[in-house]
Amino acid sequence: MNEIAEKDVINIENMIYEIDGKEVMLDTDLAKLYNVETKRINEAVKNNPEKFPDRYLFRITDKEYNSLKSKISTSKGGSRKGHTAFVEQGVYMLATILKSDVATEVSIRIMDTFVKMRHYLNYNRDFLPRKYLLLEEKVDNNTKRIDELFDRFNPKDIVKDYLFFDDDFYDAYSVIMDIFNRAYEEIIIIDNYAGKELLDIIKDINKKIIIVSSNLDEKLIKKYNKQYKNVEFIYNDTFHDRFIILDRYILYSCGSSLKDVGKKCFGIHKIEEVKFVKEIVNKLFL
């Protein structure tokens, strides 16, 4: 990754603002991270209108832009047409258009930052001082909130690794569903023991799901496909371990078959290296 992108990625949390209750990133900051001109970001939106519905982004005025920027003492920028603010889904969609090695790595780190922020608040609400929770609703204090939260707690310990013991059925199921919910469009599940238990878990998930297994029950698949249309089944006997891949960007290794989560001690680990995601996806689809 080039030096400019590396420098700016470190401060991604400082580039996420809250506007009207929505956490967003601005076109100028995304341009810095992706090492492209701001106009390239907005051209991507203009050239792909079907991928950017109104709920994925909105325009802010130059005055609003400078007001946000001034809160963290950064340089102000001018634009006669204003600026584009992308919500999390919009940032993800932009990543699917700006295809390059730099874009892929930066996009993963941006998504991880959004997830860490969200899970930090969800998992620590019970012992967070009230002043931190109130900051969620204050637009003009968003950057201060992020800085204080990240300084006080270590976000690297959140949602990367999980360890479950015997009979942790609910906790294991909850984390699996939480991982599935992080996907925007597609979930790939590699599990040689995929069966009815897994189908019961995913039948109501409204996303594209691909199940890869060497032990597929054709009768069960036929019955499932008559009622549900969200799963593609792929026979493959080259995998030993279990994996979950989200949107072909984020990779988890699961020590237990998903049908047995909670029965015995097992762990779930997020694999950070981008190259491993690419290798598994290429093995499946190329």
Overview of this structure, please?
This protein is of the alpha+beta class and about 290 residues long. It has two domains: about 5-155, no CATH class; about 160-285, Endonuclease Chain A (Endonuclease, Chain A, 2-Layer Sandwich). The protein is about 45% helix and about 20% strand. It contains twelve helices and eleven strands. The chain has helices at about 5-10, 25-35, 40-45, 60-70, 90-95, 100-125, 130-135, 140-150, 170-180, 195-200, 220-225, 275-285; strands at about 15-20, 20-25, 55-60, 85, 160-165, 185-190, 210-215, 230-235, 240-245, 250-255, 265-270. The strands form two sheets. Strands 5-11-10-9-6-7-8 form a seven-stranded mixed β-sheet, with helices on both faces. Strands 1-2-4-3 form a four-stranded antiparallel β-sheet. It starts with a helix and ends with a helix. The model is unreliable at about 1-10, about 70-80 and about 125-160 (pLDDT under 50).
- What is the CA-atom radius of gyration, in angstroms? 21 Å
- Provide the helix percentage: 40-55%
Through-space gap between termini: 26 Å
Identify the strand order in the major beta sheet: 5-11-10-9-6-7-8
What is the total domain count? 2
Mean pLDDT: 77
Q: Got a strand count?
A: 11
The structure class reads alpha+beta
**What's the main sheet like?**
7 strands, mixed
The tally of helices reads 12
Residue fraction in strands? 15-25%
Segments where pLDDT lies below 50 for 5+ residues?
1-10, 72-80, 123-159
Compressed to H and E, one letter per element, the order equals HEEHHEHEHHHHEHEHEHEEEEH
Shape: elongated
